[in-house]
Amino acid sequence: MMITDFIGILGYALQELGNVETFFIARALIGFAVGLNSTLVPTYINLFSPIYLSGSFGALNQILINTGALLGLSTGFFFTQIKLTYDTKLADDQQLNCRIVFGLAAITCIMRILFLLFLYRWEPPQYYLANNQNLEANKVLLKIYKQEYIQDVTQQMTAKINKQRIQQDTYIQYFRNPQLRFKVLVASCLSILQQVSGINAIIFYSTTIFSNILNSGKEDKDNDLSNIAMYNLYVGITNFAFSLFAIWGLKYVGRRPALLYGTILCAIILILTGVSMYESHQDQSEFYNYSTLGCIFLFLMVFQLSLGPVVWIYISDTLQNKGISIAVLINWASNTLVTLLFGYFTAREAEYNKTQDPNNQKYTVEFTSFFIFGIFCIFGSVFIFFYVKETKNTLISDSDQQQQLSLIQNNTIKTSQDFIDFKFIDRQRIT
User: Fold this and answer.
1) d(Cα 109, Cα 68) in Å, to the nearest integer?
2) Residue 393: what are its φ and ψ, rounded to 5°?
3) pLDDT tens profile 333-377
4) What percentage of the chain reaches a pLDDT higher than 70?
5) pLDDT band, residue 62 (cuts 50/70/90)
6) Residue 179 CB coordination number (10 Å)
7) Greatest alpha-carbon span in the chain
């Protein structure tokens, strides 16, 4: 992770040069660092998490993402308020504002390097066990579990390490092995579902969406600009606050019900958002304007309790490193496709509206998109109902146990004694 941070710092430094060519190189480096973090951070959290609390700890990944988004939105709100309050060259200096935002991102990389160097210098216990450094592994495990549970946990981790050595975590295996192929397919579909729910279309284009809802630019442009910036900030606060609730809730709720019922609620809310947005553009009613805003924020709340954190937790529960990277790649590809299509069609519609009477504006793309997002969530709910299994409180999933039996039957493992028995750790024992 420190190497990733150094790559990120290099990217942010190149951005400060103000050269177009180096800017594109810088963005590529930053994108590479972000992609690495998308795989490394959930894995790192999962490896250090007590089994019973893996859901709550897994939600930390979503909290950290929302923390960064909130910081960015807060910075944007701050610069907007300065621009509206003070008529100065500094307030209008967009280049300086961008440099400040880039600098804040670089600071987070530096902070994590210092944290890993001086405060949390341990590797995951699985790393030490894999390299026969049992004493070091025991020291780390004592920071996570009570003394009386160390032996059981060590045996289970050792068994999983042995299984991984035999299984070989390679990309080819995820296509050849039916069990692994099924697991990576389910994880990839969940990654797609997370993005086609429209979450990042809402976040990335929140200014456009709120501007259209609040009829920005008709009367008091500055006031509308301030309101839009405020609503953007509310988006960040909502995401952050409800991802905190997820830490508490996922301690008691399984992955499957959180995904299933959360996706069903998301589908209902998104369709209601589309209906409300359609009505608001038809009669310009204040009621429908605010009901649309309410539906959007309600969707954000439900998403942060279900599809937001749980997809990442499920991926970490069911896949190893190579499998996680495949699911993350699918996630980012879906993210890119959804946001580019949404942005393209809304931009084309905005160009059309410029040629029309202000009282005859059309926002078909927006409310139609919410209907489409809702339909995707309906299909996603059906998929989760039939194909997603519970992984809460398990060190390995049922499919892993079935794979172990099939390996024994095929004489890949000569006897069942080649593996230490995998056992569930009772939730009451890990406290």
Assistant:
1) 12
2) 65, 25
3) 999 999 899 888 888 877 776 776 656 666 677 788 899 999 999
4) 78
5) confident
6) 17
7) 79
Q: Measuring CA to CA, which residue among 158, 154, 153 is closest to residue 425?
A: 153
For residue 254, pLDDT over 70 is answered with yes
Q: Give the contacts of 363 (CB within 8 A, at least 6 positions apart).
A: 212, 277, 281, 349
CA torsion angle 177 179 184 187 (round to 10) = 180
Q: Which amino acid is at 109?
A: C
pLDDT at 420: 32
Measured CA angle at 139 (ends 58, 143), to 5 deg: 40
- Does residue 405 carry a pLDDT above 70? no
Q: Where are the alpha helices (DSSP H) in 119-254?
A: 125-130, 134-142, 150-167, 173-176, 178-196, 199-204, 206-213, 221-249
CA–CA separation, 179 and 183 (whole Å) = 6
Distance CA 226, CA 408 (A): 65
- Please tell me the pTM assigned to this model: 0.74
Give the Cα separation of 15 and 88 in Å (integer).
25
Sign of CA dihedral 44, 47, 48, 51: positive
SS3 letters across 44-96:
HHHHHCCHHHHHHHHHHHHHHHHHHHHHHHHHHHHHHHHHHHCCCHHHHCHHH
